[in-house]
Structure formats: structure tokens, C-alpha cells
Design brief:
mainly alpha; binds manganese (II) ion; binds zinc ion; globular; 904 residues; binds adenosine monophosphate; six-stranded mixed β-sheet
Length: 904
């Protein structure tokens, strides 16, 4: 059982509020610190170290117990042993119950009914762990002074975030002595990496559509949906046709592509993949180079990535791993990619190079190159989701470990077993968004791939040996690995029933009102999390959602009181939440439910019990002690932690009815259409009405006019990526020319009607496309190029670049970055903060909040593959097994830890 170190200290002191030796930080803001923080320990670090040591030795000891099945049964025949087991078992259960009680969880572990109780007890422990870990996460966030409203935009008057001083992060006498692990696990004020993304994250409640637009190593060409930008992203609004017609054309264009849109782009290649003969014979294991003697490159520039790709394309195998972050993002973020060859290690900044990493598809999908992963299930999905990368020919050492029936299948174990290397997975859950990446984390990340090529050798040899030289077992590992690489990323989709599955897991029976509250809160949380690009666990942890639903507080303060600590977004939106709870309370109860309530003697609102005591729980401290106030009194004041502007918050305090300020920064704002509607000419108004009445069943599957592909990468012919891209252009040039011709015609027409400034922009765009098309004439296949470049490949590429350079401005990295801008029709915003202009996003596609907009949307279809036939409106299909939408709760979010992580 995981226990937060700071809370292990206290199970007995809940009614001791005077002086327990642990002082709540809120009571002091000065620095003198004479009282002991943790009795018997120098500082919190010492205590934490001690605690971790204790937990570790307990874990070790438990591993040493006789195994069930053989030894255990023997030992059990001795009464002494039996007695000892019982008493120790009771002691442990008591201990666990205490911890659970302390955290306000149900804890009837001891009243066990031996037959049926075990499973339930286990569930209780799992639930409690969820609760505790969620709290730990939120507390750490708060203690670190993470100031989320400040992060999305940093305008002129940017203030450094206020750091909350508490017992957690108070600077000790030697502040350098703080535990590295602790610091790294939760770095302060990580700037949201989403801000850097050239393409906005698509959190819309629509199925994921692959990002791929160029398909290296194709035997079956990429469907035109992906290569044809016209179909893919342009609703033909700029053609001189009414909007309704434009929509219709768009529908026609996309209809035939629906199947392509959701297929695995390399399905065909993977289905026809056969392992090269040579890989099925026994290899000579090539010893790894010691880490100290191996060069390690950190790659965050495009040139280096291109060079790496060239290097990888020449190899016969390399190892890959990813690091990921899920707490402060809705879908999760791939933060790092590690690649190890036999000679070198590479750490790639997948945040910085997010839009460019797809170029590695050239090596990743080359069937002649083995990509070694360990436990690649998630990696495969993250690669698709964030980077548009696919893998053909993968060898998963986790699958190999299973096939070999090794004692454990974690990477640690393989490292120990094959390389005699001790490793620890301490940083596995670190915040990988941190930049610059601390040295320790770099080293950790390296270790994840450095030894894999060697382990791959060893395991292949072993798989053959075990099977008497027959390749069957080895083959099966390759097949299992291939199955993983065939997986498709499935976005969590919100449906009207999503809440039910989660509610069922809560194991609380809810009456009509409570269930309604749960449903409404669930929908609110999902919508807001998508908008703000936060995990649902960060937005409103499930246990708090349950508690609010159960209590149905009459006042906003009651909602605050159900949350400890109060999630920043709950604080911001408490009035909205209050309305939802009220709405739920207005539901009529069933007769039986009313009886139940009466017999229980429940009044719907109770003063919530204080469920925990921690540095951020101010409920037990007298008001005068408070640095910030009790949640019951002045919730807003506490919210200053998350505010940029104290004055504004103070106004809120005076006016308790306006408890909450509106979110200051919303990443995705709905476009204001009200105004221009009024100023539209009658004809256009009509057209708009037609559009509104027009049901386009595909609209919700499409990105809302926003971009999936880095425009600059594709259309700036001077970019290096472009060189690689065009090598792989499989479409016939003729076809492209035709399309261009058609495009030109359309453009001409549109131009006449267009205003002066748009004309100009278009011209630029046309030029760019033209030169792009012209340059396609020079396309050679990559193999030809590779052959030609045998002795001056670099030169050849130089030449191409300079040819293009004649018609377009010389490339520079900055230019490339701003290339996307010039394509937009709007004048660039005054702000110098352009790449992150979230205000332009249109979230109307959020099916969850406006189901009427897309009545035919059936997300389950994604799991089953799409059929052109539509499900009738009313017919609600049951949950597909593959649909993770409701159980998907990222990272520390509720239930997140129940995810079946493969052993790594
Ligand atoms: P690894 O393959 O072990 O390097 O893990 C890759 C990423 O998966 C990490 O960066 C974490 O974000 C995530 N991860 C791994 N194990 C777990 C786990 N047990 N719980 C939650 N996240 C995990
Ligand atoms: Mn991994
Ligand atoms: Zn890793």
C-alpha cells in the first residue's frame, strides 16, 4: 500500500490540534524554525528517507515469505507458524485500516468474511490507494506553487508564480540537501509544453484520425485522404459557393474516405511482413559498450534529427523508448524519445520536435531494420498520437521475456539478468516535461534503451536454445510484437453513458439525485478537461466527484468542503458546479429512495467530516493562524494561489455570491459568432441556416478546420523535412498537376470576389504551392538517392535546396517557424506570442456538450472500425470492449493506477 510519507507520521494525532510537533506551515510565514518538523527527525527529508527505507525493507521481507502453493502449505502444518501468520496478518490489516481511516476511506478490512471478503477488501485497498495518490499529486502541485492560470499565456506583465511556503517546501538551513528524487518527481512551475506546439492538440470529442501524410516504405500507397490536403483539411469555403453547398461538397469528398481515415496506415505492410530469414538464426551476441564510453546526444534541433534519421536508416537494428506525461494534459504528452544504437545513445526532445519527428518513419517503418522496444504497448499509441510515427518490424523484449518464462518481465529484471546492471525505476513517473532535463533524468532515460540491443541478441539466442534450435518460439515473439505495432490509438470519447461505468466502479449505490449529479459532474469535468487540456484527474478527481454527488451540498461552500485539497478548476468554477448540483437535487426521487433516505435519517446536507490532516488542510487550525483561510469561510482567498491578480481576487472575497472568477485563460475559446451574424447579408444568413439544418455526419469526425499537419513542414520547400518528404511522395506528379490546375481555376474565381488583402495572401500561398509542385518534378526515390549519395549524398541534397532557393527566400529556422503564419488569412495578432493562438480554435465539435449538433455520432464505431452505414439516432450501442473512454483516466487521475501497465 502506498502511503504518502508525510502522512505516515500521524495516525494518532487527529484530535490533537494544539502542538503536536508537526506544525502546520500555514501558521508561520517567518523563517525561524526551531521546533522539530518531524519529531525525531532532522527534517522532512530525513523522515522521508526513513519512511522509504522502512517500506522497502517491508517489501523485501514480504517477498521472502514462503510461496503459496508449495512451501507455504508445508509451513502451515505447524501451529506456531499458523498462529504467527494470523497475528501478523491482523496487525497488518489493522495498520492498513488505520491509514485508510485517516484518509477518510472505508476501512472494514478487519471484519473480514474470509470467503467473500477478500476481493472486496482488495478493492478497498485499491480505491484507497487511488484516493491517497490523487491527494499526494494535488498537494505536491499546490506545494510547488504550480500556478496554472498563469501558464497558458505569459503577457507583458508576467509575474513569477508565487511559491507557497509550507512544511513541504520550506527552505531548510541547507536547502541543497533536499532530496533530489522529490525535487525531480515534481518540478516547480513547468511551463506547459502545449504552448510550444505548432499544431494545437485536438481534444475534441471526435475519434482520432492518423496524423500521417507521407508514407515511407509503402507497398500500398497512403490513401488520398491523407495525401490530399484539399480533402483533408479544407472545407471549400473559399470557393465562391454558399456555405451549405461548401459543406455538401466537403461531405461528398470525405464520405468515400471514412474507412481510410480510421484504418491503420501500415496495416497492409504489417499484414505482409515476414521476418528476414537471417533474423531467425542464432546470433552472436554483441556486447554493449559501457555507458561511460558511449556518446550520448541530446537532439532538439531539426538538423540533428535529420542526421539521426540518415544514420538509423543504415542500421540493422536500434532500440527505442518513450517517456510520457499525463497529469497536466487531457490526452497525455510524449515528452522524450530515447534511441540507442550499438554505438551511441540519443535522447530526442519530442516536445520541441513534435511536428518534425514523423521523418523518423523512414527508419521506423523500414522492414529491414529491427526496432527493439521493451513493453511497447503504450509507446505504439503515443507514437501515433503525438508524432505520427508507426513501426514495422518491432521486437518487444517484454514479449520475449514472457515467451522465455523469465521470473519477472520488467526491464530492471532483464538488465540485471542479462547485463548485471542494477537500475532503479525511480524516475519512471517523474515529470518528464521538465526542461532543461536534469542530468539524473537524462541518465535514467538512457538506461532504458542503452542495453536493449544486447538484450535483444541474448534473448533471440535464448529463444532458439530453449526451443531446440527451432525458430517457432522466436517467431511467436515477433508475431506478438507485430500485433502490438498494429494497435491503433483510440481517443477517449465521451458519450452520454460514459459516467455509468465509472459510477459502477465507485461501489456506492446512488439514488436518482446522486446519480444525476454524478452524470452532470462527469460531463462538466470531461468538457472542461478537454478545453483546458488537463487530465480529468487534475480537473476533478473521481473520489471528490463521488463525494459531491453523495452529499449534494446546498451551498457552493459545501462543494468546496467536499474537496480536500480543492482542485484549482473546481475553485474557479464552483458556481457552475453548484448549479449542476442544484439541478440534480431538483430531480424527483423514487418512492423507494425516499423511504431509504428517511430510514437512514439522512438530511441531504451534512457538515462534511474532516477526512485528513495535512499541511494544506486548514480545517483544524484556528482562523487566526491561517495564512490563507479555511475553505469554509473564504474559499476565494485561497484561490489567490492560482491567481495572477490579487486585487481582483479580493473583490471576489467581498462578494461571496461571486465566489469564483471566470477562468482567465481558456486555451480553447468558442468563437464569437453572434456579431457577424447580425451583419451578414440576407443571402448568407439563409445559407447559414441551411448549413445549420444540414446534417453532415462526418463533420464531427473532422478536425474543426484546424490543422493536423505542420503546414510549414509540408509547404516550405526550403525545409529539410521537405527533402525527406518529397523523397517519399508516391502520388503521381500528373495527378498533382491536375489538382493544381483545378485549384488554380477555383482560385481565380475566388480571387475576383476577394478583398485586396486576402488576394495578396493567396498569391503567396499559390506561389509556395507552385514551387512545391515544381520541385516534385525532381523527385527521385529514396533508394535511387541513397545509391547516388553513396559518396556525396550531402551534396546532392544541397543542390536541391539551392535550386529551390532561387524562387523562394533562403531558408532559416525562424522563417520556417513563421511560415504557417503567412498562410493564415487573418492579420497576425499584435501579440508576439503567435504560435499559441488558442483563441481561434472552435470547440463546437465537442459532441459531449452539444449532442444535438451531431446526433448520429457513435463513438463505438471507432472501436469496431467504421461502416458507412449509420446507426439510427436512438439506438445506443453498448460499450465496445476496446473503447477506453470511460476508464481512461490519465496518470494520477482516478482509476489511472488501475491501468494495466505492462511490466517495464
Ligand atoms: P517506461 O517505458 O518504463 O520508460 O515508461 C514510459 C512512461 O510510461 C513513463 O514516462 C510514465 O509516464 C509511464 N508509466 C510507466 N509505468 C507507469 C505506471 N506504473 N504508472 C503510470 N505511468 C507509468
Ligand atoms: Mn517504455
Ligand atoms: Zn522509459
Amino acid at each position: 500500500m502506498y502511503t504518502a510519507p508525510n502522512k505516515m507520521m500521524d495516525s494518532s494525532k487527529s484530535n490533537d490540534s494544539t502542538n503536536s510537533g508537526i506544525r502546520d506551515s500555514n501558521s508561520t510565514t517567518n523563517d525561524e524554525d526551531k521546533d522539530e518538523l518531524c519529531p525525531g527527525f532532522k527534517n522532512a527529508d530525513a523522515f522521508v528517507k526513513y519512511g522509504l527505507g522502512a517500506v522497502l525493507s517491508a517489501t523485501k521481507a514480504s517477498a521472502g515469505l514462503p510461496q503459496a502453493g508449495d512451501e507455504y502449505d508445508f509451513y502451515r502444518s505447524f501451529p506456531g507458524f499458523q498462529e504467527f501468520c494470523e497475528s501478523q496478518g491482523d496487525k497488518l490489516l489493522h495498520c492498513m485500516s488505520q491509514i485508510m481511516q485517516h484518509h477518510g476511506c472505508r476501512s472494514h478490512l478487519r471484519d473480514r468474511d474470509k470467503l467473500t471478503g477478500l476481493e472486496e477488501s482488495f478493492d478497498q485497498v485499491v480505491d484507497s490507494n487511488d484516493v491517497i495518490l490523487e491527494r499526494v499529486g494535488i498537494l505536491l502541485d499546490e506545494a510547488d506553487g504550480v500556478n496554472r492560470t498563469q501558464q497558458p499565456v505569459m503577457p507583458a506583465g508576467f509575474q513569477p508564480p508565487k511559491i507557497v511556503v509550507s512544511s513541504w517546501n520550506r527552505m531548510g538551513p541547507g536547502s541543497g540537501s533536499r532530496s533530489e528524487t522529490f525535487r525531480l518527481l515534481h518540478a516547480k512551475n513547468v511551463v506547459r509544453p502545449q504552448l510550444k506546439f505548432k499544431e494545437k492538440v485536438d481534444n475534441s470529442n471526435t475519434p482520432f484520425i492518423p496524423k500521417i501524410f507521407i508514407k515511407p516504405n509503402a507497398t500500398k500507397p497512403l490513401p488520398s485522404y491523407f495525401t490530399n490536403k484539399q480533402i483533408r483539411k479544407e472545407r471549400p469555403e473559399d470557393l465562391d459557393v454558399p456555405a451549405a453547398l461548401a459543406d455538401f461538397i466537403h461531405q461528398q469528398r470525405t464520405q468515400e474516405h471514412v474507412e481510410d481515415m480510421f484504418a491503420h496506415p501500415y496495416q497492409y505492410e504489417l499484414d505482409h511482413f515476414t521476418i528476414p530469414e537471417g533474423l531467425l538464426s542464432k546470433p552472436e551476441a554483441q556486447m554493449f559498450k559501457p555507458m561511460a564510453e558511449t556518446k550520448c546526444y541530446f537532439i532538439d534541433a531539426l538538423e540533428d534529427l535529420v542526421a539521426l534519421n540518415e544514420k538509423l536508416c543504415k542500421l540493422s537494428e536500434f532500440a527505442v523508448d518513450l517517456e510520457h506525461h499525463s497529469y497536466r494534459s487531457f490526452l497525455g504528452l510524449t515528452c522524450l524519445m530515447q534511441i540507442s544504437t550499438r554505438e551511441e545513445d540519443f535522447i530526442i526532445d519530442t516536445i520541441e520536435l513534435r511536428s518534425e519527428l514523423y521523418i523518423l518513419n523512414e527508419a521506423f517503418t523500414d522492414p529491414a531494420i529491427v526496432k527493439v522496444f521493451h513493453g511497447s504497448d503504450s509507446d505504439i499509441e503515443w507514437l501515433q498520437r503525438d508524432l505520427g510515427l508507426y513501426v514495422v518490424n518491432i521486437f518487444d523484449t517484454h514479449q520475449a521475456s514472457r515467451a522465455l518464462n523469465l521470473a519477472r518481465h520488467s526491464l530492471d529484471h532483464l538488465l540485471k539478468h542479462f547485463c548485471s546492471v542494477e537500475s532503479d525505476k525511480r524516475y519512471q513517473l517523474a515529470d518528464w516535461r521538465i526542461r532543461p532535463l536534469p542530468e539524473e533524468m537524462l541518465q535514467y532515460a538512457r538506461t532504458d534503451t542503452h542495453y536493449l540491443p544486447y538484450i535483444y541478441d541474448c534473448m533471440r539466442a535464448r529463444l532458439l536454445d530453449v526451443n531446440h534450435g527451432q525458430p517457432g518460439l522466436l517467431q511467436s515473439v515477433w508475431n506478438k510484437s507485430k500485433d502490438i505495432s498494429l494497435r491503433k490509438y483510440i481517443k477517449p470519447i465521451f458519450t452520454e453513458e460514459s459516467y455509468l461505468e465509472l459510477q459502477r466502479k465507485q461501489k456506492r449505490s446512488f439514488n436518482t439525485q446522486q446519480l444525476t449529479a454524478f452524470r452532470l459532474l462527469f460531463a462538466w469535468r470531461d468538457k472542461l478537461a478537454r478545453q483546458e487540456d488537463e487530465s480529468t484527474g487534475f480537473t476533478l478527481p473521481t473520489h471528490m466527484m463521488s463525494k459531491i454527488s453523495e452529499e449534494l451540498p446546498r451551498e457552493p461552500q459545501g462543494i468546496i468542503a467536499c474537496c480536500n485539497p480543492v482542485p484549482p478548476l473546481v475553485r474557479q468554477h464552483v458556481n457552475e458546479l453548484h448549479l449542476l448540483v442544484q439541478q440534480a437535487r431538483d430531480m424527483p426521487l423514487l418512492k423507494a429512495e425516499i423511504v431509504v433516505q428517511k430510514t437512514k435519517g439522512l438530511t441531504p446536507i451534512r457538515k462534511p467530516e474532516v477526512t485528513m490532516f495535512g499541511p494544506h488542510d486548514t480545517s483544524k487550525v484556528s482562523e487566526s493562524d491561517l495564512h490563507h483561510c479555511s475553505p469554509y469561510e473564504m474559499p476565494v482567498k485561497q484561490g489567490m494561489l492560482f491567481s495572477e491578480d490579487e486585487d481582483k481576487m479580493d473583490v471576489g472575497v467581498q462578494n461571496t455570491s461571486g465566489l469564483v472568477a471566470k477562468a482567465k485563460i481558456t486555451q480553447f475559446e468558442e468563437l464569437e459568432t453572434q456579431n457577424d451574424q447580425e451583419s451578414l447579408p440576407v443571402a448568407q444568413m439563409k445559407a447559414r441556416r441551411i448549413v445549420e439544418s444540414f446534417e453532415n455526419p462526418f463533420r464531427m469526425y473532422l478536425p474543426s478546420g484546424d490543422v493536423h499537419i505542420s503546414k510549414n513542414a509540408k509547404f516550405d520547400p526550403s525545409s529539410k523535412i521537405f527533402e525527406i518528404s518529397k523523397r517519399w511522395k508516391l502520388q503521381s506528379i500528373e495527378q498533382q498537376q491536375k489538382e493544381l490546375e483545378a485549384k488554380r481555376e477555383a482560385k481565380k474565381k475566388a480571387k475576383e470576389a476577394a478583398q485586396e488583402h486576402t488576394k495578396k495572401v493567396r498569391e503567396e500561398r499559390k506561389e509556395a504551392k507552385q514551387s512545391y509542385q515544381e520541385s516534385l518534378q525532381n523527385v527521385a526515390t529514396v533508394r535511387q538517392q541513397a545509391a547516388e549519395s553513396a559518396e556525396g549524398g550531402g551534396k546532392k541534397r544541397e543542390r536541391v535546396v539551392s535550386e529551390i532557393g532561387e524562387s523562394t527566400p533562403k531558408p532559416s529556422k525562424k522563417l520556417m517557424k513563421s511560415a504557417a503564419k503567412t498562410e493564415e488569412k487573418e492579420p497576425p495578432p499584435q501579440d508576439s506570442f503567435q504560435p499559441f493562438d488558442y483563441s481561434q480554435s472552435d470547440l463546437k465539435v465537442f459532441a459531449g456538450t452539444k449532442p444535438k449538433d451531431n446526433p448520429q455520432f457513435d463513438p463505438n464505431r471507432q472501436a469496431h472500425g467504421f461502416k458507412k452505414k449509420k446507426t439510427p439516432k436512438g439506438q445506443k450501442s453498448s460499450f465496445a470492449a476496446g473503447n477506453r473512454s470511460m476508464s481512461y483516466l490519465a496518470g494520477r487521475s482516478a482509476g489511472g493506477f488501475r491501468q494495466n501497465w505492462p511490466k517495464r
